[in-house]
Design goal:
It is a single chain. The chain is of the alpha+beta class and about 180 residues long. Helices cover about 35% and strands about 15% of the residues. It has 7 helices and 6 strands. A 4-stranded antiparallel sheet has the order 2-3-1-4. It has a two-stranded antiparallel sheet with strand order 5-6. Helix 2 runs parallel beside helix 6. It is globular. It starts with a strand and ends in a 6-residue tail after the last helix.
Length: about 180
């Protein structure tokens, strides 16, 4: 089963209590989902260099598809009181394995055998990282187009954003049905 890597966006920075619950939750015991814990006092968030990172979970999940992986983490996240997924992001910087997952084909051999394959990004240390956008452009030039944003990611992100917008909203069941949404 392939490993799917993505960043899940959550509704709030984890509190110390949520972090403790997260750390003791069997669903997250394998370490495939990680978080950044901010200061105890939420007023100190402005001193964090990238406060938006406090609302992100880094995920590396074994699942048949990216959509399945996002759904699994979003479901399990509901086990932590007050925490829920509100979106998903797929970063541009990838390993060759992640790029292969995105386009559904092996790229390591093609990198060596094909002219014009993008070079690794500079300054990435021991592991070689590539720009997905550059790889997608190269694929398009070779006649094998790949979307800049995978379809599974678009579906997952839009579904999570819609679920977040509907959280606590008073939308009549008839309106939801008219929009083609299930009524729960």
């Amino acid at each position: 089963m392939p490993e799917c890597s993505f960043t899940l966006l959550v509704n709030q920075p984890l509190t110390a209590e949520q972090a403790d619950a997260f750390d003791h939750c069997d669903a997250f015991a394998d370490g495939s989902v990680s978080y950044l814990l901010g200061p105890e006092n939420s007023g100190d968030y402005k001193r964090v260099s990238d406060a938006s990172a406090l609302k992100e979970l880094s995920c590396d999940i074994d699942a048949p598809t990216l959509l399945d992986a996002v759904a699994q983490v979003a479901r399990d996240l509901r086990l932590i009181p007050g925490l829920r997924a509100v979106g998903v992001r797929y970063d541009d910087i990838v390993t060759l394995e992640e790029a292969a997952q995105r386009c559904g084909r092996e790229l390591a051999r093609q990198r060596k055998e094909s002219a014009g394959f993008p070079d690794p990004e500079p300054g990435t240390g021991g592991t070689e990282f590539y720009s997905w956008r550059k790889i997608a452009e190269w694929l398009a030039r070779t006649g094998d187009a790949a979307p800049e944003t995978p379809f599974d990611l678009l579906i997952a992100d839009r579904a999570l954003r819609l679920a977040d917008a509907l959280e606590g909203a008073d939308v009549p069941p008839g309106t939801l049905r008219s929009l083609g949404l299930p009524v729960t």
